[in-house]
Design a protein that fits this description.
It is built from two helices and five strands, in the order βαββαββ. The chain is of the alpha+beta class. It has one domain: 2-Layer Sandwich (Alpha-Beta Plaits). Strands 4-1-3-2-5 form a five-stranded mixed sheet, with helices on one face. The longest helix is centred in the middle third of the chain and has 13 residues, at 50-62. The protein is globular.
């Protein structure tokens, strides 16, 4: 198990990105949270198996229709446990 923080940059607010991330996280058995942050980025903290987090990152880099993901910054965090994946 691992925990990572992702910052998605580009046109990622107002396009359903948080709900897209929630659906993808559930599909890959990932827990954590997602939220919009000032400046127009989306922040995600995700915990799960390393290979699932890698696949999740790939999908975050694509984003939902209407989004334009210019960059995803990834940071390894100390392992955290969450009950589920939620929008904050």
């Amino acid at each position: 198990m691992a925990t990572r923080k992702y910052i998605a940059r580009g046109r990622v607010q107002g396009v359903g990105f948080r709900y897209f991330a929630t659906r993808i996280a559930e599909a890959f058995d990932i827990t954590g949270w997602v939220r919009n942050i000032p400046g127009g980025d989306v922040e995600i903290v995700a915990s799960g198996r390393t290979e699932n987090l890698d696949a999740f990152r790939e999908q975050v880099g694509i984003g939902p229709g209407g989004a334009r993901v210019d960059r995803v910054i990834v940071e390894e965090l100390a392992e955290e446990r969450f009950e589920r994946f939620e929008v904050r």
